[in-house]
Design goal:
Blueprint (H helix, E strand, L loop, with lengths): L2 H4 L10 H21 L3 H23 L6 H26 L3 H31 L4 H4 L9 H18 L15 H7 L5 H6 L11 E3 L3 H7 L3 E4 L4 E5 L7 H12 L5 H13 L4 H19 L4 H8 L4 H16 L8 H28 L12 H14 L1
Parallel strand pairs: 1-3
Antiparallel strand pairs: 2-3
Length: about 400
Amino acid sequence: MNANTSKKWYQRIKLPLGVSIAICALPVVMTGLFYALRSFPGVMGWASEHFSAPVRGFMGMLSSIYPLSIMEILCTAAGIWLIYYIIRSIMVTVRRRGKLKILGRRFLPVVVAAVYIYSLFCWLWSSGYHAPGFAEKNGFTGGGVSVEDLALVTRAFAEKANELAPLMERDADGRYIGDRNTLFAASTEIYQDIAAVFPCLDGRIYEPKPMFFYSWLMSRTGYTGVYFALTGESNVNTRMPIFLMPATVAHELAHQLGVFAEDEASFVGIAACLSSGAPVYEYAGYLSALMYLMNALFPVDSDAWWDIGGGFCEEVNRDWQDNYDYWQSQKRVETGVGFLDRILTSVTTTVSDAVDVVYDGYLKSQNQELGLRSYGACVDLLVEYYTSALSQ
């Protein structure tokens, strides 16, 4: 058999040197262009509106055809293939001469593909961090809030949570029960009313995807959802407490609608829940907001914190405790074997801390100076917006 005919089809493709160089250089140029222009909000805003939004919307439409998470499938397949490719490359390299040249040939396409993916991620998602944000577009002052207003809004949200909590479906022990598929199906309608208030939220929404394989890992690392710009999907941790899942869904859908900053997405998601007209979403919105507000209130007015917390109804207390117990349980591994539990718990903590450090660094590198604390910064937006609503 001729040596050429034994080669696979992609090994027989011969590209001109100039074309090969251009293919390799393009993602590097695009990434460099992003970093050169990201300090210009107007340029990033234009790119976000005229490139990022249409492409993410188109990818969201395509991925919505398939009910499972395309992101989860692609990441799993890429991980398995990469492990196989590395092992295979080492085996091939060891058996042949010119090892460095062979290694370079095998890994150059992988590096180029990785740079292409990173370049796309920069322009499809990171560009939004450097564009004018939701608060700026909608006239929020961002000048801080008074302790009195913080306590006022916290108390009002506690009262609404108390009102809605007993209406939720519960088991004989008083624990919240609900159907994930039902709340996912209802999610595409929850932004209708809030979009009338904030027109920038008027857009096509695609139903979120459950994370089947990675929900365990997400819980272990403390994450409830993730929006993946390359497929336009909102992905949700299905192991988290279901009474807060609607707020997570709304948060990830806010990203889908082009709200990039985490604090703003938290505020927008809560606002969408509260105006949705769907009791399960309303309750999740009030409870989620109440957790943010109570955490902010305690350091500045502990007396008000104790007073408001002491007024929680039995159902709110139950859900609050169940949520705390769940996330605490994710910090421990219990196999029944003492030394193994200690080792696995230590590994889980280390991995969780590492994920936090990486994501915190990423947020800060993208002009989100608060890093992971951005999730708590939504308190200012909640108090500013709902203080005005309460005073009317």
